[in-house]
Amino acid sequence: MNRLITTILSALIIVGCSQRAGNDLLWITEGDVHVDAEVTVDASLDLKNDGFIILGGPKDRVIKARTETGALYGKYALQRLERTGKASGCLDIREEPAYERRILNHWDNLDNTVERGYAGWSIWHWGEPVPAELIRDYARLNASIGINGSVLNNVNASPGILHPDTLARVAQIADIMRPYGIKVYLSVNFSSPAALGGLESSDPLLPEVQQWWKAKTDEIYGLIPDFGGFLVKANSEGLPGPQDYGRTHADGANMLAEALESHGGIVMWRAFVYSPKSPDRANQACEEFMPLDGKFRDNVLIQIKNGPVDFQPREPFSPLFGRMPQTRLMAELQITQEYLGFSNHLVYLHPLFKECLDSDTWCNGEGSTIAAITTGKLQPEVYSTTAIAGVANIGRDANWCGHEFAQSSWYAFGRLAWDPSLGSEDIALEWLKQTFTDDRRFTEPVMEMMMTSREAAVDYMMPLGLHHLFAWGHHYGPEPWCDVEGARIDWMPRYYHKAGKDGIGFDRTTEGSGNVLQYHEPLTSMFNSLETCPENLILWFHHVPWTHEMSSGRTIWEEICLHYDRGIKTVRDYQKTWSEMKPYIDSERWEAVNSKLAIQESDARWWRDACVQYFGEFSGMEVPGDVEKPQRPLSELKKIKLDMKHHN
Ligand code: BDP
Fold first, then answer.
1. Given 137, 251, 288, 310, which residue is catalytic?
2. CA of 107, closest atom in ligand 1
3. Is position 601 annotated as part of the catalytic site?
């Protein structure tokens, strides 16, 4: 039955979003926005999930959807078209989200700190009055880009999240977000039955443990009827899990899945596991999870980070995506810039996200991309539900994300989760026009900055497949020398680059750790051979002599120096470009970005000075004449201790 919600929607969608008074800085800005359209919600329409249709010209615009949320998405889509100058003519648009669940993962703790958060305290204001207005703004922003789920708390979950008092608060938050189509999910600690419930064990095969989870789940659904489900980090980095009781990941996940099943909830079970004993950390997830393929209940998804190690500026895709054909898989992308300069560096992450989703695993022949697998296109019979997650970069900072441009990666995640085929440039342009101005004198050069920014960060941090050269613990600056005597050197940086007099790089070939074998052909052969391995991953897969000749004719040593140098020069170009952008935007935001670019330039030099000089000691070779020489001596750089107090 057709139901007319309203004919003229003017003033109905209030999308003026300001996190703090006077700071309306996001893509849906400044006061009320009107879309004039006739909106129909009709459950019998042939549309998937919360899809929508927009038809007609400016005077007789029609939005149709199957659900209220779909209608809301249609309104936001129309508004976006209007704001980006694409709604003048007659429209005939039909959109359906590629993923059913498009979820932000907040790594927020109950003490209001945010793990790897660089934008201030938790927006949930745990233990304080619920900030309804702020949460409403957050929900509107998310709905406007199609995000429909929010995991409120850190994967390193405190059992306290399931305490009745906390759940009552979670229910309040869920009530505020519901009108925007956003479901609440929680990260849970696997030992909650013992730690919170007072049971002697949290063994998933014990009936009393299963009962405890059932009762807890029922309690949650009593408060939040549309609760989304649980996210679980288990037997990873010291957290408890089923293996503590000799059980498998499947035993643990299935127990929770059973408790959630009758309510329609899901379990997102993370595959981010690695044992310090494994000879190659990049192998660990496949080793642990492949044998469990087909053993998970239908409402379990395995949540896999894009790369096999850990959100590095560039990694190959995680081979696990191609290795569990009987299991529902979902990607976990990191929007917060843990390894990409925190909220100090301008790095637009859509190209990184897209590189992952477009990667072809070849698990079912050519075209078996991660997007095709995780959207269920490749095996619809396995994918009873589909999902994608992004680790949020949101905090209480006035501009939400710490850096004006960090918002673009939040925006991009939402758009990508809705439609992974959208291009990075299109999304960047959309965001720029809605957030700053549609003046081409601004959007064209600034889009160029955004589009090159991820590669620039790779260049000045970890080019050519280098990875995890970060300072121990905080993951901000470089410490390629980090190799503490007696420490767990297997995951210390030197472990990852293996620089020595003989050369540099991690041998993951069939002669080395064998990691290449976790990929399907033709990728195994391609990565395994020095001739065919893509050069931007060469030091990920190969250990090569310093004199190894690259396709440019230069040695790997020279190429390393050139990449660091290029990264710095690119940031300097950004500074120059930005200095010319002053006339087009407000001075507050211009200044904020300008001062962050100065930090980025200085950090890029810090990376170059540390890595080029440190590796130079092994290579015994001079820095090529056509690149800028390192400036600060290694002895000085080794003394830098970052004060992390402000990066909670
Ligand atoms: C690492 C982070 C750590 C997270 C962990 C995870 O450094 O803070 O808890 O990943 O994803 O990247 O579980």
1. 310
2. 9
3. no
In whole angstroms, what is the distance from residue 574 CA to residue 601 CA?
A: 9
Residue 310 is a catalytic residue: yes
Nearest to 361 by CA among 525, 536, 518, 520: 520
SS3 assignment for 109-178: CCCCCECCCCCCCCCCCCCCCCCHHHHHHHHHHHHHCCCCEEECCCCCCCHHHHCHHHHHHHHHHHHHHH
Residue with tokens 């020398």: 481
- Alpha-carbon distance 46 to 109, whole Å? 42
For the CA of 156, the closest atom of ligand 1 is 9
How much distance in Å is there from the Cα of 48 to the middle of ligand 1?
34
Quick one: tokens of 488?
Answer: 């767990």
Question: What pLDDT, on a 0 to 100 scale, did the predictor assign at position 481?
Answer: 87
**Predicted structure pTM score:** 0.95
CB 232 within 8 A of CB 252: yes
Mean pLDDT of the chain: 92
Instruction: Assign 95 to helix, strand or coil.
Output: strand
Within 6 A (CB) of ligand 1 lie 115-116, 155-156, 233, 237, 272, 310-311, 338
Residue 482 or 615, more confident: 615
Q: How confident is the model at residue 34 (pLDDT cuts 50, 70, 90)?
A: low
What whole-number distance in Å separates Cα of residue 164 and Cα of residue 195? Answer: 14
Longest dimension (CA), the chain: 77
Ligand 1 atom with the smallest distance to the CA of 311 is 12
**Total residue count of the chain as it appears in this document:** 648
